[in-house]
Amino acid sequence: MAGSLSPFVYWAQTEDSISLRVALSNSKDADVVLRPTKLEFSAHGHGAKGVHDYGFSLNFNQPLDTEASTYKTSDREVLFILKKARKFWWSRLTATPQKPAWLKIDFERWKSEDGDEEEDEETRDVRKDYPDLYRDLHKRELGYIRESYKEVYLLIYNLFQFVGFTFVFSVLSIQYYRDGPNAMVQAFESVGPAMKFVQLLQFLEVMHVMFGYTKGGILAPLLQTCGRAFVLFCMIDAEPRMHAKPVVFYLFMIWSSVELIRYPYYISQLYSLNIYALTWLRYTIWIPLYPLGVLCEGVIILRNIPFFEETMRFSWALPNAWNFAFHLPTFLKIYLAFFSFPILYFLMNHMYRTRCKKLGIKSWKKSN
C-alpha cells in the first residue's frame, strides 16, 4: 500500500456488525487482510482521484469476528460486513479518537435491528434508539448538528397546525366562558375560516405518507381527512342554516382537542423525545373523542338531509350532458345507515392496535 491513494470509506453499524462501503468502482486485484482489530485493503480501480492504486489500513476500536465477516465487490463499490466479537454499539470505529479524512460516517445505513417480527412494526433508526450516540457521532463528523430539510418542514407544519387548532380551541373556550351557551351559535362565524384552512392543510398528511416523509398506512389518514373535509365543507360551510347550530360548536371542540395532543406528540417524535404522559394522551384521548366526533358528524348530516332535499344542492337530475343522476339526500341516508359505523370501527381498531404497540399493551387477540 506504500504510495497508494486512499479511497473514501463510509462506515455504519448495527448492534452486531460494522459495514464499510469503499467508494471504488471497477476494482481489480483486491488484496484484503483482516485481523480481529485491523483491516488492510488495496486494489486497483476508479476512485476519487481517477483510476489508480488505492489502499487503506484501519485499526478498530473493538475486536471483530473474522470468521463470520465477509466482503464483496461490485462495479460500483466494495462492501465489507464485519461481525463484532461482542454485540454492543461502538462509540467510534477507530482505535484512536482521531480518524483519517477519507473515513466518513454513512448515516443512511445506521439501522437498529429489533427482534419484533410483527408485520406492522416500523423500522427504527439510530436517532430514536440511541439519540445521544447519534448526535455525538454527527457532531464529530460535521462539527455541528445538521437538520434535514424534511425534519425542518415537518416541524414547521406540525407547529403551524398546533397553533391553528390552539386558536380555534382558545377562541371557542373564551367565548363560552364569557357568553355561556349563547356562544355556540357564533362558533362557525368566529373560527370557521381558521378551521377550514387548517383542515385543508391536513391533506398534506396524506401526501407525507405517500412521499415517505412519515411512516404508516395511507388508508386511515385518508378516510379521516376526507370525512372531516366532507362534513366541514359540504355539510356545514355549504348550508348557512347549519352555521348557528350548537352541534357545530361541539364538533369543533372535539376536533381541536384531538389535535392539541396529536401535533405536540408528532413534534416530540421528530426529536426522539419520549414523553410518556404525552404518548399516553395521544393514544388514549381518542377513546372518548372519536365516538363523540362521529356522533356530532352524524347529527349534522341527519339535520342536513331536509335542507338538501329542499335546495337539491350537490344533486344532479336527468336528463343532463353526462347522463348521470345523483341525489345527495339519498346518499346521506345510505352513508348513515351502512357506512358510518364500519368506518368508525376501522379507525378505532387501527388506533387500538397502535395504542397496544406504543404503550406496550398486549392485545386480547394475542393473549388467546
Give the overall shape, derived from the CA principal axes.
elongated
**Poorly predicted ranges (pLDDT <50, ≥5 residues)?**
112-124
N to C succession of SSEs? EEEEEEEEHHHHHHHHHHH
Estimated radius of gyration = 29 Å
Instruction: Look at the structure and give the mean pLDDT.
Output: 86
GO molecular function: very-long-chain (3R)-3-hydroxyacyl-CoA dehydratase activity
Family: Belongs to the p23/wos2 family. Belongs to the very long-chain fatty acids dehydratase HACD family.
Catalytic activity: a very-long-chain (3R)-3-hydroxyacyl-CoA = a very-long-chain (2E)-enoyl-CoA + H2O
Enzyme class: lyase
Structure description:
- The protein is an alpha+beta fold and 368 residues long.
- Helix content is 50%, strand content 17%.
- It is built from eleven helices and eight strands.
- Strands 6-7-2-1-8 form a five-stranded mixed beta sheet. Strands 3-4-5 form a three-stranded antiparallel beta sheet, with no helix packed on it.
- Helix 4 runs antiparallel to helix 6.
- The radius of gyration is 29 Å and the shape is elongated.
- Residues 112-124 have low confidence and may be disordered.
